[in-house]
Amino acid sequence: MVTLKQIAEKLNISITTVSKALKDYPDVSKKTRKLVRETASMLHYKPNSFAVNLRTKESKTIGLIIPEIVHHFFSSVIKGIISQAEKKGYLVITLQSNESYELEKQQIELLLNKRVDGILISLANGTADYKHLSEIIENDTPLVMFDKIAKVVKCSKVIIDDRKAAYKATQHLIDIGCKRIAHFRGPLLPQNSIDRFLGYKQALLDNNISYDSSLVYLLNDMSFEEGKFYANQLLQDHKDVDGIFINTDLVAIGAITEFNKQGIKIPEQINIVGFSNWFMASVISPSLTTINQPGFDMGKKAFKILYKEIKDKKEKKSIVYRDEILETDLVLRESTKN
Amino acid sequence: MVTLKQIAEKLNISITTVSKALKDYPDVSKKTRKLVRETASMLHYKPNSFAVNLRTKESKTIGLIIPEIVHHFFSSVIKGIISQAEKKGYLVITLQSNESYELEKQQIELLLNKRVDGILISLANGTADYKHLSEIIENDTPLVMFDKIAKVVKCSKVIIDDRKAAYKATQHLIDIGCKRIAHFRGPLLPQNSIDRFLGYKQALLDNNISYDSSLVYLLNDMSFEEGKFYANQLLQDHKDVDGIFINTDLVAIGAITEFNKQGIKIPEQINIVGFSNWFMASVISPSLTTINQPGFDMGKKAFKILYKEIKDKKEKKSIVYRDEILETDLVLRESTKN
Fold first, then answer.
1. Which fold has domain A59-160+295-328?
2. Which stretches make up the HTH lacI-type domain (chains A, B) (predicted)?
3. SS3 helix, strand, coil % of chain A, rounded to 5?
């Protein structure tokens, strides 16, 4: 490691002058500043980032906690966050909660101890208590939640209107003539699975279709396997179902796989709408009609808001929390009629 | 932020005693140590990690550079790395090179300036010069390469035997009776696309099938779209091809989509073998025979080796570079006969 002392000795000037020159202080002559910079570069001098952090009280890193990395939507979000952070000179530490509240809690503790400048989080399905999130705010660390959020926590949020999107998905099934529409819903806790369920229900009611709770299947881990399992279950429980709105594409793809295997014709016998627009949705056969959820943009937006809050905090401005709602659209494909 | 001073004042003891107590020094009485720890915990005291870094000369973070995050194989690798790092108390900063050499160079500079304790990298396709990698080693920062590596760089590497795996894939096509076998290969530079091509060629030669360079298509970005494009190109160029070994699953899935669209029967008319075993390979129709590439294990292994090298460096032991070669296997599915 090259030190300021070595540069000073090489140029036969004081360490203080070297230090000032590198910070571009005007009380060092232009000529000396130039000479010091050139020498530093030649010697591959790197400022000690630990000392810089200590002085500036900034780490120029942020923490990101997501439930699952190997997941098309979340990896798109990560990509959006990282691309934007890099532009602003921030590095991103990523942690995976595995949908576990306990792990999420520990990870927040870890990030706070690490003194990251801000935290981005999408909650685990298991998270029902928000004390660990309040701790971030009490610690005066900017926090932005995205996708799976807790409404009661006071911070900025980047979401889609899950209720509206689910309404749109269900309305499409009604518009193409479906009368008995099932819903594969997500777990009870995350706000987005509640909202998608409510959007489904509202669309039925607004179209004078009576809500039948036996048509709603509560999923646990939202996996491909669960999609297969509940598609089979549905065939046994309700022979008359002609449409399904499914909480996420991975589950919908599992369901399509099962229906294909059992010789059920999609969309002739059952119409299917998914949610998220995973890449896979466009390549499976039949391809999947779904709600396009803009992961990359969500990541970019979440970082932008966090960045502004970090800046505002530094400049001792008061932080104004924002709810940013991104637009979604219905992508029509082969799994629904027309 | 709670300081040591506040703890000291509260207990009416010296700051030095508090500091020693928190570090569990035996010259502070057991009783005092316990009291200090309890008080620190009650006041939510967090050590200043910047000062700790400066003292220990460690950041307890590592850097990870990969070409692309939204990619089943690489996101599996990230997951493997993060899961293992967390166990050992390390945080992971992830950067995406976008297959760009320039970006990769800048990112390494950034990570070295940040003083990460070690770097894990899978090279961009555009990387032909390795000076930026040598700089990591000259900087005395442990480096482990995985998947897309540079053979000439002196560091530990975690790879699969791409040549052997490609040989196995091609041999399978020969074993089921294919006589004219095409290859969609990756770009010229990355070692893994060279090795997969060489494995393909060797299998042909060992089976007395003459090598025809017009059957080898050089791909650029290895995308779904390229798979569709070259599937169509192949149909125009060579009507007699009965098997294809494709460098990666995403491209193979593009090819299957195009063949399906044009009414070409798989495997009756063309047998296809992919590489990597993306999740999608199991759900597309027909499902894809492919080489299973263990991404999660590769990530875990790469971190384990890096961790050992960080530890050895700290203990001033000499570092012995290792080449770790992970096993692959051929997963038989519907896209090849039998």
1. Rossmann fold (3.40.50)
2. 2-56
3. 45, 15, 40
Q: Which residues of chain A have pLDDT under 50?
A: none
Contact by Cβ (8 Å): A93, A61: yes
Report the gap between the CA of B115 and the closest CA in chain A (Å).
Answer: 7
CA A100 to chain centre: 16
Residues in A closer than 8 angstroms to B285, CB to CB, are 260, 284-285
Instruction: List, as ranges, residues 243-302 from A with C-beta within 8 Å of B.
Output: 253, 257, 260, 279-280, 283-285
Question: Shortest Cα distance from A306 to chain B (angstroms)?
Answer: 18
Structure tokens at B275: 């590489």
pLDDT tens digit string along A157-175? 999 999 999 999 999 999 9
Decide which of 1.10.357.20, 3.40.50.720, 2.60.40.420, 3.40.50.2300 is the CATH code for B162-293. Answer: 3.40.50.2300
List of chain A residues whose C-beta atoms are within 8 Å of the C-beta of residue B119: none
| Domain made up of B60-159+295-327: CATH architecture | 3-Layer(aba) Sandwich (3.40)
- Would the CB atoms of A113 and B49 count as touching at under 8 Å? yes
* CATH 3.40.50.2300 boundaries in chain A: 59-160+295-328, 162-293
Residues of chain B below pLDDT 50: none
B75 touches chain A (CB under 8 A): yes
Four-point Cα dihedral A7, A8, A13, A17, nearest 10: 90
Are residues A83 and B61, on separate chains, in Cβ contact within 8 Å?
no
